[in-house]
Design brief:
The chain is an alpha+beta fold and 292 residues long. The chain is elongated and about 165 Å long.
Length: 292
């Protein structure tokens, strides 16, 4: 806007200089010497120079369009740059844009419909920004139409390969990853980079949700039973190992305790005294009396 006003002032200055230098207001007749009118060339030159200079703001990229060659594939970076006076430069933002698509309905492999809310974050690739201008003119046209269509198409392509329980359950993260990769490739052809694809509130109705919950509970019970079985098996194996080790130790000890060793151990513990009595409960003899 400021540049436009500046150019208007240059045109006005040119007209004023021509009139002042070519017309004598005292005699109300044209001047014989019109050399002073050459000063009118100064604003004209400045005006032409303003047509050759363009400023590309930050977070934008410039797209050059020529009446002779059309849209240039070479984009203009941020800052001041030069162009032909007859060329036009259009600005395309390169900041991260966001598009939310509600009530996206897709069909699963087993003919069940899943509804979700999808959020797409993207930005224009600086080198390929000319594709956006050439095909859609403005970023808003791309944002409002192409992004939503491509996002739904990517999700449909992936979800149709899975049943509804896998889509909402164990395979959910896998589906997100595949849909993201597919959308990334589609947008790349349009000169756009995918920053993030988020699929929120995916559901298939209360009946399907209940079936998935019941399956999860049953699966958890099976896992718990299997864990208990493995623990019991491990405990039994531990007891067998401990019993075997104890039996082996006893066998080794029995082999070591021969009669010769037992007699030797008895002799080592004997204090040199003989028994003082001998016999059984009916006939007991006091050995000490016999010795006396």
């Amino acid at each position: 806007m400021l540049m436009f006003l500046f150019r208007v002032l240059l045109i006005i200055a040119t007209i004023v200089l021509i009139v002042v230098e070519c017309f004598d207001f005292d005699t109300e007749e044209p001047k014989k010497s019109k050399k002073g009118a050459l000063w009118a060339l100064v604003p004209i030159v400045i005006f032409v120079l303003t047509l050759c200079v363009v400023y590309v703001p930050s977070n934008n990229v410039g797209i050059r369009w020529s009446a002779f060659s059309g849209t240039s594939s070479k984009t203009l970076n941020e800052g001041i740059t030069f162009k032909s006076p007859i060329d036009k430069v259009f600005l395309i933002p390169t900041t991260v844009e966001e598009r939310t698509i509600k009530n996206v309905n897709v069909q699963t492999k087993d003919a069940q419909f899943v509804r979700a809310e999808v959020n797409v974050k993207f930005r224009v690739n600086q080198k390929d920004a000319f594709k956006v201008y050439k095909r859609y003119t403005t970023l808003d046209n791309l944002k409002q139409n192409i992004i939503s269509n491509y996002a739904q198409k990517s999700i449909e392509t992936v979800v149709t390969q899975y049943n509804v329980i896998d889509t909402l359950g164990a395979k959910k993260n896998e589906i997100y990853a595949l849909a993201t990769k597919d959308l990334q490739n589609m947008l790349k052809d349009e000169g756009v980079e995918l920053v993030q694809l988020t699929i929120k509130d995916m559901n298939a109705g209360s009946e399907i949700e209940k079936a998935i919950a019941d399956e999860a509970v049953a699966k958890k019970r099976v896992e718990t039973a299997e864990q208990n079985r493995l623990k019991a098996k491990k405990d039994a194996e531990t007891k067998v190992v401990n019993a075997k080790a104890e039996a082996d130790a006893n066998k080794i000890l029995e082999k070591q305790l021969t009669n010769k060793i037992l007699i030797q151990q008895w002799i080592e513990k004997w204090n040199g005294e003989v028994p003082k009595v001998s016999g059984d409960s009916k006939s007991m003899i006091n050995i000490q009396d016999l010795l006396n």
